[in-house]
Structure to design on (143 residues):
């Protein structure tokens, strides 16, 4: 199985004064504003790191859901947030960390098994494999 998805961005003007818009091929995002002000000054709109955080959280959560199902569980829920860090370095900026925090409730499962499957999902979800940054994981299990 293979899928190909698309996204696009435009940027009018240059540098800090420029304004951009980002869209996804599915239309889930359509001409959402982004630029220096949305990335560093909390202006309305999105930014690349926020989009990466959403992508990582959703990819990991789906991967963990599949790991839970493969382990024989059929009920429960998983919620994950990701915090992506952008830092200034000598040669510009770099994404240096994606911190996942996941919370799960799976009847009949113990915390150790949840943590084992979560670690597997963290290592093997496609977005984790894509990122060349430290990826951390914090689990919260409700039993």
């Amino acid at each position: 199985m293979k899928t190909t998805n698309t996204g696009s961005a435009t940027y009018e003007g240059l540098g800090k004064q420029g304004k951009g818009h980002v869209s996804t091929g599915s239309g889930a995002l359509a001409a959402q504003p982004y630029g220096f002000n949305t990335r560093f000054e909390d202006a309305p709109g999105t930014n690349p790191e926020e989009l990466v955080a959403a992508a990582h959280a959703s990819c990991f959560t789906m991967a963990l859901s599949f790991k839970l199902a493969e382990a024989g569980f059929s009920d429960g829920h998983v919620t994950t947030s990701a915090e992506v860090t952008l830092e200034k370095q000598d040669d510009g900026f770099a994404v240096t960390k994606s911190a996942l925090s996941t919370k799960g409730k799976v009847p009949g499962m113990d915390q150790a098994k949840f943590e084992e499957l979560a670690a597997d999902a963290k290592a093997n979800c496609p977005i984790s494999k894509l990122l060349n940054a430290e990826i951390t994981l914090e689990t919260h299990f409700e039993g």
DSSP finds four helices and six strands in the chain. The mean pLDDT is 94. Strands lie at 7-12, 19-24, 32-34, 77-89, 92-105, 134-141.
